[in-house]
Amino acid sequence: MRKRSVGIRAWARLLGLEKTIVEGVELDEDDAIVVAVRPCWSQRDRCPHCRRRCPGYDLGEGRRRWRALDLGTTFCLLEADAPRVACRQHGVVVAAVPWARHDAGFTRSFDDTAAWLAVNTSKTAICQLLRIAWRTVGRICERVSAEARAGRDLFARLTELGFDEISIRKGHKYLTVVVDHHSGRLVWAAFGRDRKTVEKFLDLLGEERCKQTRLLSCHDAESITRPTAERCPDAVICLDPWHIVKAATDALDDVRRAVWNEARKAGNKQLAKQLKGARFALWRKPENLTERQQTKLTFIQKLNAPIYRAYLLKEQLRQIYHATTTEDALKLLDGWLKWARRCRLEPFVKLARRITEQRSRVEAALRHHLSNARVEQVNTQIRLIVRRGFGYRSPEAVIALAMLSLGGLCPPLPGQCHNPRIRQ
Ligand SMILES: [Zn+2]
Q: What pLDDT is attached to residue 88?
């Protein structure tokens, strides 16, 4: 086989540059490799927003540099002119370049690598590997996510929606997220948790698609149920199982706290101490209990009847969502409501009242087999990502990271398609 000689053209290949001409390569005073480039003829003088070819305006601020992926162990920079063009629609703007996104200080492959790493690895690993600050990663995520979102219709074939609100800081900011139940993908997220936020999404979804919505899951909040019921007339509203079970866990905690306070006031230190330690045993699913927690539970059964009753009420409500058939589930729900109404534990009586009021929506979740596991999984993932993204200054970056990770918008690593070839 004839070997092709590699000269200046190898640099374009090495850097993953397309539609770009390499003019020269040199080392600068800091020993970084500086590659002088220019867009090929077809890419010159284009508007970065509409890609239309425009008349030149001026030379802008002269030569500019973009950071590219390191070459081996060495920093690498691209250098080129950055002239301005006059677009009919967008006015005077710096001309687009094929190797970088508009307004970016990094090349496209650098951006994509950073976004891929933000989705797939830890904060420290990205920052050290790429030698950039976490805040910079946030800005890159925003750029990459915005471009991916613009190129694709995330609301296509959306018929089963899940709404959720996630608290970001205790008692402060909230994020409203919308998940596609079919694919389990995140399709939209925004800050706020009021009617206006939900309406913003419904506006984006548009009248026609609102009418196509068949199933809608959310928790018991009027800020969501009201506007969605009005705008999506054909959608069945289901109350999210995860939140129903959580309400029961909260009720159990209320009962535990009341008994604990009573014991403390009565000077029963021993009981108070035992109850305080029992919290996790009561919270956990019985199948996940450790041996010690199991002993604790048996102890509570003997020690305090109301708490144990509350525990059984919580567990039984959870079991409803694990019933094998819908009939079984509905029967269990019926039995649970009867029991809870006369259990003489105020938090559970209240919960039973609320569930009775919303019964059709609770039953809808059972009839449509809205899987608790799936909702829970997406919720947990979103919470984790939001917590990671918290170091970003801008809230938009948190949303961008969430969309890249859970909305299927993450770009493949540069030079690899979605199925990378692995060499050993
Ligand atoms: Zn334009």
A: 95
CB 67 within 8 A of CB 107: yes
In three-state secondary structure terms, 37 is: strand
Question: 328 alpha carbon to ligand 1 midpoint, in Å?
Answer: 61
How far does the centroid of ligand 1 lie from the alpha carbon of residue 86, in Å? 8
DSSP 172: S
Residue 285 vs residue 242, higher pLDDT: 242
pLDDT score recorded for residue 419:
56
CA 97 to ligand 1 centroid distance, Å: 14
Helix, strand, or coil here: 240?
A: coil
Residue 243 neighbours by CB under 8 Å, 6+ apart: 219, 220
Residue 357 has pLDDT above 90, yes or no: yes
Higher pLDDT, 277 or 320: 320
Write the CA distances from 194 to 108, 380, 412, integer angstroms.
37, 22, 36
DSSP 106: B
pTM for the full predicted model: 0.82
Per-residue pLDDT of 311-341, as tens digits, reads 999 999 999 988 889 999 999 999 999 999 9
Q: What is the CA(413)–ligand 1 centre distance, in A? A: 29
Question: How many angstroms does the Cα of residue 46 sit away from the middle of ligand 1?
Answer: 8
Residue type, 189: A
* Separation of CA 191 and ligand 1 centre (Å): 30
Ligand 1 centroid, distance to 99 Cα (angstroms): 18
- Residue 69 CA to ligand 1 center (angstroms) comes to 29
Distance CA 209, CA 387 (A): 32
Phi, psi of 136 (to 5 degrees): -65, -40
**Residue type, position 281, single letter:** A
267 C-alpha vs ligand 1 centroid, how far in Å?
Answer: 76
Model confidence at 169, pLDDT cuts 50, 70, 90, reads low
- In degrees, rounded to 5, the angle at the alpha carbon of residue 30 between the alpha carbons of residues 27 and 35 is 35
Whether the per-residue pLDDT at 231 is higher than 90: the answer is yes
Question: Cα–Cα distance between 279 and 245 in angstroms, integer?
Answer: 16
Q: What residues have their beta carbon closer than 5 A to ion ligand 1? A: 47, 49-50, 87, 89-90
